[in-house]
Structure formats: C-alpha cells, structure tokens
Amino acid sequence: MAAKRAYYGNDSDRDYFERVFQSANINFLIGSGASLPAIKVLGTIETDLQQLINDEQEEEYFRMGTDFLSAVWLPHECMLQRGHGAPFAPQVITNLECTRKNYDAFMSSLEKILTRRRTGLLPRRINVFTTNYDLFIEEAATRNNNILFNDGFNRRSNVWGDQEFDAGSFNHSVSATGNLYNYKVELPTVNLIKLHGSLSWKHSKGKIIYRIADIKPFNFPTPAEMKEWVLAHTLILPRKEKFKETLLQNVYYDLLRTYSNELDKEATLLIVFGFSFADEHLETITKKALRNATLKLLIFAYDEASVSGFMERFRDYSNVEVIYRPGGNVDFSVMNNIITCYLGGSR
After folding, report:
1. Is 32 helix (H, G, I), strand (E, B) or coil?
2. Cis ω before 37 (30° cut-off from 0)
C-alpha cells in the first residue's frame, strides 16, 4: 500500500532525496495549486461547465467560461503590462509577484538537479507535465539561461516565424561539442508538456502555433462575441461536440501517450505537486503505469489533512509515497526547498 513520509529536513531526508533524484528519469506533474496565489485553484469549473452542457444551457456555459478565463487572464495582463488604462489592483500585483518568485525558484531547482547529476547513464532532461493553461513556467524560463527550455515549439511553420507545435520534439536531446577536444556533453533540458493546452496556443490552418492572443475586450456587446472569444482559446475544456476541435483532441491524446510512455521507462520518478488527480484520464494512466515496479510516485500533500485522500486513492500501490510536513504546510516554495535539500536548497 502507499506510504506516508514526513519531512523534517534532517540528514536522513537529504540522503533519501539525493538517492531518488540521482538515479531516476525525472518527471513532474504540476496542477493548479502551483499557480497560487495569482490564479485560484481550478475547483469544480470543469464539472460545472459539463453540467451546463448536459442541461443545454449554452449561454450560461459561455458566460461561466468567460468568467473563468477572465480570471486566468488577469495576472497575465498584469505580467504583459497591458490593460485598458486603469491600474491593476495592488493585490493582483502582489499575488503575481509571489507566483513568479515561486516559478523562478522552481526553474532554478530543476537546473541545479540537472547540472549536478553525477551519472551519465541517464538523460540530463526533466519533463514537466502540467494541466495548467498559464504562462508562468514559460516566463520563468526566460530568466534562466542555464537550461534549454522546450515547450514543443521548436520549428517554424512559415517564413513569418510562426512556431508550430511538435509533440515529437519532447524526445529530442541537445549536446555541445568542444572545439579543441573530441568530447560531447548533453545540455540540461526541461520539457514543458501542457496536457490541457495553453493561453499561448492558437489553432491556425490545421496547425497549433505559438501566439499570445490580443487583450480581452473590455466587454462583449453581444453573446455571440463572448462565445467567439471563449472558443478562440485552444484549451481542453468541456465542450459540446459541435464545438470540439479534432486537432486539439489529437494533440491531447498524443501528449497523454507521451506521459504514459515516460512513466513506462525503467527507473522513473514522478513528482506530483498542486494536483488532485481529479482528471480521470491522468489518474487512470498513472495507476496503470504504477504496475512498473521501477516507477516511484512522490506526491507532495499541502497539509496533513490532505494526506489521507491521497493514501486512499493509491492504497493498492506500494511504489507511492505521500510527502508531508508535520505541523506545517507544503506550498510551492517549501516543495522547491525539499527537492533540492540534498543540494543545499533552491536559490
């Protein structure tokens, strides 16, 4: 059965995390809890939208979708320094800076794990799977020049410079060679695999290209314009059949296959943070993958109260450990410090 593991920050904890990180293919699964406080936790939005579809309340569906996406866009408009002239609320700015700081520390943590990896038998690559739509990881990557960052947009689709999404690029590795000596070293790489789409994805002529949308209109004069704005997002959200995009569905299943294939590799580590496994597809794939005896799943529980839920969900799997901090919470900053505790903590 799954096991609980308390973290105290002692030598035993440092030895444990050094052992699991140095000898594994490393993967992260990041959920909406990681983007707090800039963006609220997803909650029941998907269930609520699906219920509106079932009840054939189309106008309510698009109104709820607009409210939800507006809340996701708000910190991004602040981050992109664009708006409708009015200053952003101080709380929006404070929450954004807190979230940016957490993601900067996360990228720094991944860099340290990769650059100090001792074995050359495993790839110097970390896969970050996420169901989040936001752009915080991408923005944090622009401030870290010590790793190669791959979000799937690695080639141009036309001479205008539009970058086309290619799920196959997540299998690539990049090496540097010396001028004077015949040596080759793999460069540390972080793959960002956004399973539910992204605010930076745009469907164009049968392809997905990288394009941050124009600022949201201040208001929508008609329900038709509101509907058009919601549907313009290339995201996995509950939708009526007539609104579903075949291209996005195909990409979604390609990325789920990538997730499954990575977990099937020998000596694999999956670290979960801010994710509740409410997504049935990901829960099913993860549980099937746990049949791989060399896969280790570490789930960071925010508090002791949430430990029991994870223990119950994975009660039949002995290669699952739920990490918690007695007497304290495990937020994003604490998680960053824990995963690099054997390296001296995140900077």
Report:
1. helix
2. yes
Token pair in block for residue 92: 């929006």
Instruction: Report the Cα 24 to chain-centroid distance in Å.
Output: 20
In the sheet with 3-6, reading across from the earlier edge strand, the strands are 3-6, 320-324, 295-300, 268-273, 25-30, 125-130, 189-194, 148-150
Exposed, middle or buried: residue 207 (CB in 10 Å: 0-12, 13-18, 19+)? middle
Q: Structure pTM?
A: 0.94
62-to-138, 225, 249 alpha-carbon distances in Å: 28, 10, 20
CA dihedral 207, 212, 217, 220 (to 10 degrees): 30
Distance between CA atoms of 159 and 163, rounded to whole angstroms?
10
Contact assessment for residue 112 and residue 106, using Cβ atoms and an 8 Å cutoff: no
Contact by Cβ (8 Å): 296, 268: yes
pLDDT of residue 173: 78
d(CA 226, CA 250): 26
Quick one: what percent of the chain has pLDDT higher than 70?
96
pLDDT band for position 205 (50/70/90)? confident
Q: E strand or H helix at 127, and its extent?
A: strand 125-130
To the nearest 5 percent, what fractions of the chain are helix, strand and coil? Answer: 40, 20, 40
The three-state secondary structure class of 184 is strand
Three-state DSSP state, 285:
helix
